[in-house]
Design goal:
homodimer, 3 strands, 170 residues, DNA-binding, 8 helices, mainly alpha, globular
DNA sequence: GCCACATTGTGAGTATACTGTCAATTAAAT
DNA sequence: ATTTAATTGACAGTATACTCACAATGTGGC
């Protein structure tokens, strides 16, 4: 007869799971971002969107979602909030009546350059508890892992280069 | 005169930020969990709650939130959903009329033992792209980082041991 | 014993993050 | 050229994740 004794469930089933650790670390990252940047009315996602619109003026929502790997539906709300804060404007495209092109406003460019030091401080604080060498190691492994798992995510990241082509041909 | 040329903003301000990488990895982790466990109607958070109620029968919502470091308000909804699925029951405590004690139902215990292999598969898939040695390194650094940053998170984790005392004295 | 304080669960409100679906529009197939 | 496909932005619905606030309850100071 097989050993039918069930394996006892322990909290290790949670605490040692990489998924749990990634969730915790994400929560910590957001908390540190909000704390360092509380002088600015910007969330981490809104910051990423703002940076991308800054480096890709005239990008549309679908392409923006691909460049930062955020869900398209979610991004719709993010864009609305950024627009409500007067950090971006949406202009209809001449060639394609479906798309709305995104541009930074002066206020958007201003808040972006002002918030940068605080963002850097928050990012540094996340890794601060580790030794410098360990920070580099973790960042390197994490970068690899995100890249290698790209297709596993619901909204894979499509690099900026790839988008140039996607824009016209497909 | 100082060099007033503004630093040009690049996508590195997003792509190399640890916070962005943690967000991406969390999204990937959830996507893999959902994919592997789609036969079971359980989210990662619901799974963690179920495991904890299993190992701490009669725990209350506040203590549960401390043990898995999830927000108390969020957990209220999670508990409601678990109860709606008949995986847990809530019983009023005799000594304290405010608290409601949480217990697994038979169905809850059943789904928990059944889902375990799929959860393990999902957790393994997350790190699969890395070499075994790198997986160990990443997991070790991540565990350290979450632990060392514990107080930075909005809902710091309070270990099970600490809760025994908290339960009575304060 | 009473009063200030803390705790518990709950609710409202905001922001991600995903699933669908849908109409309008464009592109592709033939 | 007309039917078919795909794309775009929008919306509804669900699930985290946080904020603040509130009533009910419990506890400690005195």
């Amino acid at each position: 007869m097989p050993n039918s004794k069930p394996t006892p469930v322990t909290m290790d089933a949670v605490y040692t799971a990489p998924g749990y650790l990634f969730r915790r670390m994400q929560q910590i990252a957001v908390a540190l971002f909000i704390e360092e940047c509380k002088a600015f009315d910007l969330t981490p996602v809104q910051y990423a969107a703002l940076v991308t619109i800054s480096t890709h003026p005239g990008i549309d929502a679908t392409r923006l979602s691909a460049v930062i790997a955020f869900d398209r539906s979610t991004l719709g709300n993010v864009i609305e909030r950024l627009q409500a804060k007067d950090y971006i404007v949406r202009k209809p495209a001449a060639e394609d009546k479906r798309v709305k092109l995104l541009y930074l406003t002066k206020a958007g460019a201003g808040v972006l350059s002002e918030i940068m030091p605080s963002v850097d401080k928050a990012q540094a604080r996340m890794l601060q508890p580790l030794k410098p060498a360990d920070r580099k190691t973790l960042l390197s492994l994490l970068t690899q892992l995100v890249d290698l798992n790209n297709e596993a995510s619901r909204v894979p990241l499509r690099a900026e280069d790839a988008l140039e082509h996607l824009g016209r041909s497909g």
